[in-house]
Amino acid sequence: MTKNNAVITFIKSPEKGRVKTRLAKGVGEKAALALYQYFVMDVLDMVRSTPWALRVYYHPEKSGRRIRSWLGNDLDLFPQAGTTLGDKMQNALAETFAAGYERAVLIGSDLPDLPPDIIDTAFNALNSSDAVIGPSPDGGFYLIGFTAKGFIPEIFNHIPWGTHHVFDLTQNNFSGHGVSPVCLPVWRDIDTKADLQLLGIDPASGPAMHTIRYLQKKGLIF
Known about the structure:
This protein has helices at residues 21-27, 29-48, 64-71, 85-98, 116-125, 166-176, 193-196, 209-218; strands at 5-12, 53-59, 76-79, 103-107, 131-135, 141-147, 182-183. It is 38% helix and 17% strand. Strands 3-2-1-4-6-5-7 form a seven-stranded mixed sheet, with helices on both faces. It has 222 residues and is of the alpha/beta class.
């Protein structure tokens, strides 16, 4: 049932020089900050257009007031807990299952055109499988999901986050626990200026309205 499904997304406090640093090399820190904010708004709008619950985990821990002033008071906001990205994902999923959700998928905030169909596919997969993962072209993953009964926290252990080996090593961890996650279509994060040019090209893409409107205004996309 959709009411038992939760989408978790990770966001950062919008501070110049601390978000989308690779993108900033191509468009400048000011534009990268603005784009990051629009990425987040597009992701949140996409999830809000669905029946799924939305849980937003933010960083740093003390930025909750700033996040609420930016995104409003109607979100379920939680501070990210843990040292590594793996710790934070593990804890967010564990908290979500402890809150009573039966299925949860976790996505990042740099997927402004991610279509809801992909998340729907993930939840459908979790009706018959305990895990699902969505690979990125850069060797990482853009989505990972579990059922509450099949959640394996150790999947996130011993992964060199931010490298090209993340997806393969995560798959190795799954194999070590005798689990074969359902693999979703490849989707790319928006990390560079070149990635921006791909927005809106794929007919399966979501609208990314905030992001594309800004890019058109600034002449970064046509």
